[in-house]
Amino acid sequence: MKEEVFDITIVGAGPVGLYATYYAGLRDMRAKLIDALGQLGGQLTALYPEKYIYDVAGFPQILAKDLAQNLISQALQYNPEICLNEKIIKLERIEDEKILKLTSENGNVHFSKTVVLTLGIGAFVPRKLDIPDVQKLDGRGIHYIVKDKSIFKDKNILIVGGGDSAVDWALNLEGIAKNITLIHRRDIFKAHEDSLKKLFNSSVEVKTFYELKRVHGDEHVEGATIFDNRTGDETYLDVQHIILCLGFLANLEFIQNWGLEIDKNAIKVNSKMETNIPGVYAAGDIINYPGKLKLISTGFGEAAIAVNCAKNFIDPASKFFPGHSSDFVPKKFKSG
Ligand SMILES: Cc1cc2nc3c(=O)[nH]c(=O)nc-3n(C[C@H](O)[C@H](O)[C@H](O)COP(=O)(O)OP(=O)(O)OC[C@H]3O[C@@H](n4cnc5c(N)ncnc54)[C@H](O)[C@@H]3O)c2cc1C
Hints:
The chain is of the alpha/beta class and 336 residues long. 21% of the residues lie in helices and 29% in strands.
């Protein structure tokens, strides 16, 4: 075989895949990191670069894009091979079942002794609203992702949704926007308790049992009509931007034929992050096991377990416990 066979190939360069890549370097494994997007960082850079994160250990508050940058620096110190703009569509075993072969949509192939799948929510497809004017003004005042907070400066904003994204954006844009209204179709929110406490103590006007009925404007959003879903009463809001935080549709169709056991639209793993395919591990938002939390902090731990198991898989004589990171001080941190 002409192509290099890597010790470990990590598919998905979100926070969990980046941390797995660092760990692979720490365990002296020749690693490759592949992502479908043209940039590293997964949801942190693609969906909410300007949002603050408060629940990653060691960082009382950090912007998503800064956390991504730190993870990238940490991951790159052992010189992994990076392949961007490559959506993996096929995973199979070849050569007497010893090597795993990954094929991307553009026809490139990758060979590896082990694979860690950190695919997150797969391809990011925001859930859309079936209201004609919403589609017409998509990108002209209608947003699903916030990439640049400055466009909201001194504007009136409507946020639709009751999950973490909606609540986080309302809090993150407070003080930037002129005023913010958040509507949710129920009075039960899915956001963190602490964020909700902050929301109800903020200047954001929260309207429960309200839904979006119509968007106004020709070239750009100029207003919105919302309605009370208990009474049908309509209210007109003078807003220039509407952020729709209705969740993302997980598109995992592409892994259906990989032979992986799927549980609740996620890859089933055991406590060693092993999938049902020997040598194939998974970590982060893509997995499910009893007690799974889809958070960055839990994903980091899963990545460490997956990589240490992968090391042990290709070298059974190696210790499972990696030792402490200070036993392997990277060159750039060595004094003298
Ligand atoms: C608005 C918002 C706010 C959030 N706030 C927080 C927070 O405050 N704290 C917290 O802990 N979590 C938060 N989260 C959740 C957090 O972002 C995720 O838990 C985390 O990103 C999961 O990391 P991951 O590496 O598993 O997946 P992802 O970040 O989703 O990365 C997966 C990567 O895999 C790539 N990929 C997918 N399929 C393929 C394929 N077939 N081939 C190649 N590449 C592929 C994708 O392009 C992507 O880059 C938030 C999420 C959102 C949307």
